[in-house]
Amino acid sequence: MGYDIDRFVGYVNDGLLCSICRDVLEDPLQAPCEHAFCTDCIHGWLVHHSNCPEDRQMIDVSLLRPLYRYMKNDLNRLQLHCKNREYGCEMVCSLESIDRHERECEYSQIPCSNAGCTVQIERRNLDSHLAMCEYRSRECPNGCGYTILSAGDTQHNCVAELRTELELLRSEMICRVEEAKHEMESRLDSQRRHMVQKESILQNEIEELKSQMSRLMSDVRSLMAAERQHRQELEQAELEKREL
C-alpha cells in the first residue's frame, strides 16, 4: 500500500499515484507501459492477473523496473506530515527523509521494555513511565541480591528465594559433575582402545622383525658355509698345483 495522499502538503501529480491503491507511490515499480505501482500492490495484483490494471497490457514480474530517475526525484521531494500527527507531532518532511524521522519521532508509540508490561507509550514519555512501571525490576532492598518486580515486593521472601537459588546451584553442580565424569570415562575408554590397538600393531612389528632376523641369520650361516667350502677348494687347488 502507498502513502495516504491526505498526509501530503500541496498538489501531488497523478503520475506519482499508484495505479492500484491510488495513494502516493511507496517503493515504486514501473511496467513497460509506464504505469507505476507500489511494489506490494503490483505483486499482489500479479498473483491473480497477468496484465496491467490500467491498460490491460500483458506484464510479468520480470518486466517490472524501478521508477524513472526524474519521477523518483519528484517523488522524494514531496512534503508530507509525520504519521504521528494525531499524537501531536507537527513535523513536515520530504518523502525521502520521512522514514528516518518517524523512526526517531518523539511522538511514536513504542512498547514498554519491561517484561510483562503491555503499555504502549510515546517515546518522549518512556523514561517517566519506566520509573514508575509496576513491572520494573530492581534488586532486593534487604540485601539478598535477588532481582524482583515492584509488583511482587509483598510476595518476596529472601530466605525462600536463596534456598531455591541454592537448590538450583546444587542441581546444576551435580549435572556438571556427572557430565565431567561421563566425559572422562569416555576419554579413558577411547585412550584404552587406542593403546590396545597400538600394542597389537607393535607386537606384529616385533614378530615381523624376529622373522626378518631369523632369515638374516640363516643367510649369514649359508654365506659362512659357502666361504669355508670356497676356502677348502682353494687349498685343494694349491696342493694340486704344488704337486704338479
Automatic annotation (TrEMBL):
Pfam families: zf-C3HC4_2, zf-TRAF
GO terms of biological process kind: regulation of canonical NF-kappaB signal transduction
UniProt KW Metal-binding keyword: yes
Zn finger limits (TRAF-type): 101-144
Record carries keyword Zinc-finger: yes
Keywords in alphabetical order: Coiled coil, Ligase, Metal-binding, Zinc, Zinc-finger
Domain of life: Eukaryota
Coiled coil: 192-243
A single GO molecular function term of this UniProt record: zinc ion binding
Domain RING-type residues, every copy: 18-56
Stretches assigned to the TRAF-type domain: 101-144
Family annotation (Gene3D superfamilies): Zinc/RING finger domain, C3HC4 (zinc finger)
SUPFAM superfamilies: RING/U-box, TRAF domain-like
Protein name according to UniProt: RNF41 ligase
Lineage, broadest ranks: Eukaryota, Metazoa, Chordata, Craniata, Vertebrata
